[in-house]
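Sanity check. The docking grid for FE2/S2 (inorganic) cluster depends on where the pocket ends up, so I'm generating a full predicted complex first rather than guessing from homology. Inputs follow.
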Amino acid sequence: MLRNVLTLGRSLRSGQRLAITAKNASAQIQLQNQQRFFQMSAAVLHGHLKKPNPGEELHITFITKEGDQKTFEVAEGDNLLDIAQANHLDMEGACGGSCACSTCHVIVDPAYYDKIPEPDDDENDMLDLAFGLTETSRLGCQVHMTKELDGVRVALPTMTRNFLNKDMN
Ligand code: FES
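Predicted complex below; grid placement will be based on this.
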């Protein structure tokens, strides 16, 4: 059967016409079953985000570089990078959340800053390299939503620095 599938696949790629026989019809069905389909889903279901349970929604407001405020309902455990990217905000996240860049730099509302666990050494090292560092700066990929952070406001800095980009060297 595998050989029939491979032969049929080669023939289809080369544009060669095939007579439908019981043998290759079976192989054709097997090929069709291997096709993949695109599906669409709500932004909140992208990345590592999970839909919050009813009644357990947490809220976060991002202040964009242009000064707009955008509020989202999120689930406990979501990190700020995933939330921003799922909602098409301008947060690059060049290292994919592995604490190796500073392109997910956010400035946290001082009223909430102390409710976030302290940054570890790796995060502090990256923050030291961020443009526009403030007293309440954090890396979005390292901050996870908790009940204590419900209602938090974070601002996106006007610039970020991507040390993963060779052009910066
Ligand atoms: S995405 Fe690179 S440090 Fe957060």
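Relevant for the grid: Helices lie at 2-14, 22-33, 80-86, 110-113, 121-127.
Also worth noting: The radius of gyration is 24 Å.
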